[in-house]
Design goal:
The protein is mainly α and 187 residues long. It is built from 11 helices and no strands. The protein has helices spanning 2-14, 30-42, 48-56, 59-63, 67-73, 76-84, 93-103, 109-128, 136-150, 158-175, 177-185. GO terms for molecular function: guanosine-3',5'-bis(diphosphate) 3'-diphosphatase activity.
């Protein structure tokens, strides 16, 4: 438990100036906490190192933390998982997204669990706090991309996979023009 609380403190400090991109402008730290919470809810016996990595999963790519810094503060296992799920921000966005699809099958089981929970949280945000300026096509394209990333990660958690599928279905239903028209018409 001590290591997990230390990871929350580390991530909160690292993400202190960041906000989510939706209209609520939630503090960014809510996202990594949600990712870790999703893992605990769906896989309650998950090792603390994986939960710490879930909390820290964006500190390399978004905050400039290094693998060595994470290893020194936590341990090599946590640092390696975080590094595995970190995008290389030097690459253009489309390349980073393609790389997530390409590398997903080769992730360790721990990294697959973090990646899967991250996508559950991110796709869920398309219902509750969609990024400002995103239209229906962008939202649906994001869900399709997330499904491709998640496909090889499903083996690590049936519960998280089911949650992802339910949320993806809800997002598609809500953001499909025909469903929106029905909702607006009160049908």
């Amino acid at each position: 438990m001590q290591l997990l609380l230390k990871s929350v403190d580390f991530a909160a400090r690292a993400h202190r100036d960041q906000r989510r991109k939706g209209p609520a402008e939630e503090p960014y730290i809510n996202h990594p906490i949600e990712v870790s919470r999703l893992i605990v809810e769906c896989e309650p016996h998950t090792h603390e190192d994986i939960l710490c990595a879930a909390i820290l999963h964006d500190v390399i790519e978004d905050c400039g933390a290094t693998r060595d810094e994470i290893a020194a503060c936590f341990n090599d296992t946590v640092a390696d998982i975080v590094l595995e799920v970190s995008d290389d921000k030097a690459l253009p966005r489309d390349e980073r997204k393609a790389q997530q699809i390409e590398t997903a099958p080769d992730l360790t089981e721990a990294a697959k669990l973090v990646r899967l929970a991250d996508k559950v949280a991110n796709v869920g945000a398309m219902l509750t706090d969609t990024p400002i300026g995103w239209d229906e096509d962008q939202i649906l394209a994001y869900v399709t991309w997330a499904e491709a990333v998640v496909a090889p990660c499903r083996v690590v958690s049936d519960n998280l996979s089911e949650r992802f599928d339910a949320i993806a279905r809800d997002v598609r239903a809500f953001h499909t023009p025909e469903e929106q028209q029905k909702a607006e018409a009160g049908v």
